[in-house]
Write a structure and sequence with these properties.
Elements (H helix, E strand, L loop, with lengths): L11 H9 L4 H8 L19 H11 L9 H10 L1
Protein name: Rho termination factor N-terminal domain-containing protein
InterPro entries: DUF7218, Rho-like_N
Organism: Jejudonia soesokkakensis
């Protein structure tokens, strides 16, 4: 049974699995707190197929600093490593 991480984490089991894979606390929490977390997967358009504007909006949603100065390749890298 997964440790209870408090009310701020909606899916403790998934949070722990993501942290064990090396994800940051912020990224693991964001994924574990998404609606239907653990039930979705593989349906998102790959970053390479998205427009720079779509990538910018996703970076804005996540809160990536410096996104306005990034090109498409840099946005993809920042999104994957945030």
């Amino acid at each position: 049974m997964a440790k209870n991480h408090g009310p701020s984490i909606k899916n403790d089991e998934q949070y722990e699995a993501l942290r064990n894979k090396g994800m940051s606390k912020e990224k693991a929490a964001r994924i574990a707190n998404t609606k239907d977390s653990g039930k979705k997967g593989g349906k998102a358009t790959p970053y390479e197929e998205r427009t720079k504007e779509q990538l910018y909006q996703k970076a804005k949603e996540i809160g990536i600093d410096g996104r306005s100065q990034m090109n498409k390749k840099q946005l993809i890298n920042a999104l994957r490593n945030h």
